[in-house]
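Try this one yourself first.
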């Protein structure tokens, strides 16, 4: 597979001024400021192959946005190397930005006072896109994102969900090979989120667009990504498949059983007593020690059962467990 992004030993540090409290402290800050180095990103390494859709995850302050800004050429690294589609992002900005797309959840790239359609049409000469391909992409995206009803509305009058759809469309009209999405579903309702997820999945699968997705909504990740990278304090804790992440860190699963009649005792050997709710029992078990099928086979001969469901913990719980326990993984 063709590597489109190569990141080697990438670091970014900032100098900040330490503030002293009080009036005397303020005067001292002016005369003899104390400076402190903050390491936002520390020696991270990764590659993205053409057609990848990767979730880039971490808590606030982990270094996600700083990485994206370096990848898009907005920041110059303190050290390390970035090569994106043959370009060093901050050295040849004019040619580089014509080959990438970027969407930042709280910022728009559209013209605030112009109708949406006029903002789109301005992008054609700006990116030098031939009229035919531009019109075909525009028609396809307008239909997929259901934008027909607000194409003639000024950008400033759009709802958050409408603006996000318009920004996604604008980021793809020049047919970039690589797109950076920073919180594309933040603040949106369930319907708007699903429409945007479907669109992201479409451009990745049908057009082969490589996507790096940062988000706090882990349903975005579960819905879209096979591979995830997890950052904390500027370092990569994990780089691998979502399924392997779950396999290594999901210990406890839940077996939810609805009985057909009342039973006084429904315990299973080796498991803690289940949580009881009327005719329902919820068994907590370590899926690495107990196979759910074996537990079900133990239940069926003993009880009359109306329904059985195996539940896995939410991805959010798994990742929170990694952070809380400081479970560092070598990158795969």
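Now uncover the answer:
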């Amino acid at each position: 597979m063709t590597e489109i992004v190569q990141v080697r030993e990438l670091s970014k540090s900032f100098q900040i001024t330490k503030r002293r409290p009080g009036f005397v402290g303020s005067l001292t800050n002016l005369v003899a400021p104390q400076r402190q180095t903050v390491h936002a990103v520390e020696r991270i390494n990764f590659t993205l192959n053409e057609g990848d859709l990767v979730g880039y995850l971490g808590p606030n302050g982990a270094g996600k946005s700083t990485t994206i800004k370096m990848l898009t050429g907005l920041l110059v690294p303190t050290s390390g190397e970035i090569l994106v589609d043959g370009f060093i992002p901050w050295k040849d900005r004019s040619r580089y930005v014509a080959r990438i797309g970027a969407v930042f959840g709280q910022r728009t790239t559209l013209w605030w006072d112009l109708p949406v359609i006029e903002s789109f049409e301005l992008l054609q000469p700006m990116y030098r896109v031939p009229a035919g391909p531009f019109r075909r992409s525009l028609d396809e995206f307008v239909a997929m994102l259901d934008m027909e009803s607000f194409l003639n509305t000024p950008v400033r009058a759009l709802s958050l969900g409408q603006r996000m759809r318009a920004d996604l469309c604008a980021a793809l009209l020049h047919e970039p090979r690589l797109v950076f999405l920073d919180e594309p579903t933040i603040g949106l309702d369930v319907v708007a989120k699903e429409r945007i997820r479907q669109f992201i999945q479409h451009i990745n699968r049908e057009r082969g667009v490589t996507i790096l997705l940062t988000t706090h909504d882990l349903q975005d990740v579960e819905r879209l990504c096979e591979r995830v990278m997890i950052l904390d304090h500027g370092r990569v804790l994990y780089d691998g498949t979502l399924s392997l992440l779950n396999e290594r860190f999901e210990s406890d699963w839940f077996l939810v059983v609805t009985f057909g009649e009342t039973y006084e005792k429904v315990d299973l050997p080796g498991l803690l007593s289940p949580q009881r709710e009327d005719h329902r029992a919820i068994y907590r078990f370590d899926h690495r020690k107990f196979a759910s099928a074996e537990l079900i086979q133990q239940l069926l001969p003993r009880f009359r059962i109306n329904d059985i469901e195996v539940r896995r913990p939410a991805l959010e719980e798994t990742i929170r467990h990694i952070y809380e326990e400081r479970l560092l993984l070598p990158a795969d």
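Discussion: The two ends are 17 Å apart (CA to CA). Residues 190-207 form the longest helix (18 residues).
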